[in-house]
Amino acid sequence: MITASHNPAADNGYKLYWSNGCQIIAPHDRKISQHIMNNLELWDVNGKEENLENVLEIIQSEYEGKLNGIIKELFPSPPTRFLQVVYTPVHGVGQRYVDSVISSIGLPPLLKVESQCNPDPLFPTVKFPNPEEGPDVYNEAFGVAHSKSAQYVMANDPDADRFSFAEWNAVEKRYRIFNGNEIGILFAYFLRSCTVGPLAMINTHVSSQFLSSFAQHNNIYLISTHTGFKNLGNKAIELEKEGHRVIFAYEEAIGFMIGGLVHDKDGISALAVFLSWLNRTDKLCSEILADLYDKYGHFVCYNGYVPCCELALKERIFKKLGQLEAPVNLAGYTINIITMYEDAPLMAKLQLKDCQVIFRCSGTEPKLKYYSEGKDKNVSELIKMCNEMSNELLKL
């Protein structure tokens, strides 16, 4: 699949999938890379165009049919309301597919953001076209939502494999953007509510610990993997072969896999299933989330990143962390346990008395990312801690 997603068009990226429908993992990645290096001369395809087949329509029809089946199984009763919802693909490819899917499952059209509904690799209305980046990406959609008094705003990233949404807060008179962990919690809650029997779910090592607490009380087998849907998707296939019903997988970077439709994150099906649920509940997402926190624990998360371009610096940071002996002081904070990951050398978990923070280097962007969480913590404390620790690590 050719895609640079929310990265600059010059990245000219692509994703490679194996025959099982998942992104490639070892040893396939190394073998494919070697085949590429052994075949650097361009093929002559002139006059062979008739051998090419466009399977997009076939795939789309089959995809929508299976998605319809999943939604009907989850929600056998008809919607109790039809919400006003604004949708933006953020200058990506999502609009035509969301329009088609929403129509196929019998919901009314979503309100368009005309300034962002067509693909444009220059992303002219945003600084960075990833809904994870917050209000800047949503500004155009919020304008439409205000004018139409819409309760919800939904977004995909440019290649439509991520899903995000915001909800109108009548008290604060603003739209609240939900982060990936909060959306994951809501998915887990209603997917468990809509199904009977034992289920399996998957998240990542840097996802919120809330799902672990929720799973223990709700007949859910939960397993965590390293980040990246190449890991979650292949783990889902492995669990399915063992007889588990894997209904959900997610990572905090607003990536969601629903019901085994595909073994990859998919923003289109995530939007369709989430909207189908919203049209069948009379409570706000913020209210449901608050109830869940009261019942299973107030897990407070703060995630972010600092720019980190030099590979040598990244390697030096994690080599130094691996040499530290806990308990140890870092930027004024006492670290009680340091966990290094042999199969992810640029990643470390630091555990403090009442919270933890995981540092890892992005595999696709020049960033040192951090994922912090504490039970019953103040988010301002986590922000301060992450900023001070990150700055200290960059000095190593």
Name a few traits of the molecule:
globular, 5-stranded antiparallel sheet, 396 residues, alpha/beta, TATA-Binding Protein, Alpha-D-Glucose-1,6-Bisphosphate, Chain A, domain 3, 3 domains, single chain, 5-stranded mixed sheet
Order of helices and strands, N to C? HHEHEHEEEHEHEHEEHHEHEEEEEEH
Tell me the helix content: 25-40%
Strand content: 15-25%
The H-level CATH homologous superfamily of the largest domain, spelled out, is: Alpha-D-Glucose-1,6-Bisphosphate, subunit A, domain 3
The strand order across the widest sheet is 2-1-3-4-5
Largest sheet: 5 strands, mixed
Coarse structural class: alpha/beta
- Return the average pLDDT rounded to an integer: 93
CATH structural fold name of the largest domain: Alpha-D-Glucose-1,6-Bisphosphate, Chain A, domain 3
- How many individual helices? 11
End-to-end CA span: 38 Å
The stretches of 5 or more residues where confidence is low (pLDDT under 50) are none
Number of domains: 3
Number of DSSP-assigned strands: 16
Level-2 CATH architecture of the largest domain: 3-Layer(aba) Sandwich
CATH class of the largest domain: Alpha Beta
**What is the CA-atom radius of gyration, in angstroms?**
22 Å
Overall shape: globular
